[in-house]
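Retry 2 of 3 after timeout on previous attempt. Resubmitting structure tokens to design endpoint.
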């Protein structure tokens, strides 16, 4: 390419970029033709055409045969995927909120790191019934994606929990632990729709309720005795899931079955064709929110303790 062509191309590029910066030209706008520029610059039209071809190779313009030369449109990014939109929304809210509090990027990173480190620590789930503790831990792992670990009350020492960020427990276990444990305790409760389903099952009568262990069965029978759940006619039978054969025998003559969340897949097959209520979860949403809030509180405490000084703007 000749020196004249290079000079013309450089001049065109400068004019185009300046025009874009000033807002005089927009993407897709038609640019002066080679004939018009050749007349204005007093150069050969072929030289101008060659200069335009060079700018097209650079991606600055698009030459359309029998139409003209146009300022190239910036290549549009692909349509954001749902996860990318979610990340954008989260980051926008994060940064706007942080800037409003005069927190810099280092402070944001420090806090997020503290959350990640807190969530990586095991969260004990305690109950007097090992089966119930395991089911609740499974549910927390599935719904909150936290490393919940089931711990039965029997033989549990309070000092074994002192290094935990928090402890999740049923109300009965929390009442015992609260006497000597300094770690935050979140007492979880059952979901309202789960309890309503259980109440409907017991009200209808002739229902067999399958529970995970002896302690869970004792609590349910106690609730029936004290009128916390309706007592049907014929009465409700509470059974511990054990084997498929035992379950099949337990539902003979029953009108329906209620399977505790977390029951093994074989149990539903074992009860046969009678109506069967199988709720997926048992923990209330408010209980999950309390666990999540306790994790954030523990992360904030960790971040403050580890910070060399208070974040900018903090009082």
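Retry 2 succeeded. Sequence:
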């Amino acid at each position: 390419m000749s020196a004249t062509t290079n000079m013309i191309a450089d001049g065109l590029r400068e004019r185009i970029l300046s025009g874009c910066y000033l807002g005089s030209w927009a993407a897709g706008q038609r640019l002066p033709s080679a004939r018009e520029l050749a007349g204005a610059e007093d150069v050969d039209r072929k030289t101008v055409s060659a200069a335009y071809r060079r700018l097209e190779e650079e991606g600055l313009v698009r030459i359309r045969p029998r139409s003209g030369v146009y300022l190239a449109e910036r290549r549009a990014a692909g349509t954001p995927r749902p996860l990318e939109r979610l990340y954008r929304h989260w980051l926008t809210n994060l940064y706007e909120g942080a800037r409003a509090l005069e927190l810099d990027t280092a402070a944001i990173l420090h806090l997020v790191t503290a959350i990640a480190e807190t969530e990586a620590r095991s969260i004990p789930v305690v109950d007097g019934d090992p089966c119930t503790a395991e089911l609740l831990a499974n549910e927390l792992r599935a719904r909150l994606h936290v490393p919940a670990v089931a711990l039965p009350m029997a033989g549990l020492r309070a000092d074994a929990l002192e290094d935990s960020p928090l402890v999740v427990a049923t109300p009965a276990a929390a009442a015992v632990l609260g006497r000597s444990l300094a770690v935050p305790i979140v007492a979880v409760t059952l979901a309202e729709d789960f309890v309503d389903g259980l109440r409907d099952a017991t009200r209808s009568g002739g229902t067999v309720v399958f529970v995970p262990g002896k302690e869970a069965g004792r609590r349910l029978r106690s609730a029936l005795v004290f009128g916390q759940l309706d007592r049907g006619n014929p009465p409700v039978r509470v059974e511990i899931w054990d084997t498929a054969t035992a379950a099949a025998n337990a539902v003979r003559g029953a009108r329906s079955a209620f399977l505790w969340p977390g029951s093994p897949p074989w149990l539903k097959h074992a009860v046969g064709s009678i109506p069967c209520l199988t709720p997926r979860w048992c923990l209330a949403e408010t209980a999950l929110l309390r666990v999540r809030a306790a994790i954030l509180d523990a992360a904030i405490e960790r971040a403050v303790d580890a910070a060399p000084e208070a974040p900018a703007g903090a009082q």
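Attempt log closed. The radius of gyration is 35 Å.
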